[in-house]
Amino acid sequence: MTKEPITGGCQCGAVRFAGDNFGRASICHCRMCQKAFGNFYAPLVKLHGLVWARGNVKTFASSNKVKRGFCADCGTPLTFDYGDGVEVAISALDKPEEATPSIQVNPADKLSYTDYLHELPVRGLSGEPDASAFIKGIINYQHPDHDTKDWKAEGTK
Length: 157
Fold this sequence. Notes:
There is one protein chain. By secondary structure, the chain is mostly beta strands. The protein contains two helices and ten strands, in the order E-E-E-H-E-E-E-E-E-E-E-H. It has one domain: Metal Binding Protein, Guanine Nucleotide Exchange Factor, Chain A. About 10% of the residues lie in helices and about 30% in strands. The longest helix has 8 residues, at about 130-135. The protein is globular, with a radius of gyration of 17 Å. The model has no long low-confidence stretch (mean pLDDT about 90).
């Protein structure tokens, strides 16, 4: 029985990747990762045997030691290349649940409130007809969470 490859890609589908198996998965709190991901932290995982199945990443050298890869069409953050290996964004995987972070790194820049996010109240859609109607009216233009032979993103200009 052949093991299925690990796959993923960007939001618009212009860039797709595959790999063989995972290395360590982490959450990076450094300020560069916060800005690169537009988020509180960057969830990353080493993907052994990484190959580009469609398209190419554009890179930005965020420091003298790191190049970050992203889709030039939709801007999705995809890679963290530190010269001794490449990590991929866990959220760019087709099955992100398979890459559970096992460590947090660079805690000096950690935003203090991230430890309490799970305590925030959750707002559901029940009782909010405007929000419910908005959600029901969304047409998803994102690439699906699986490989496709051909793909043209509807939302690109």
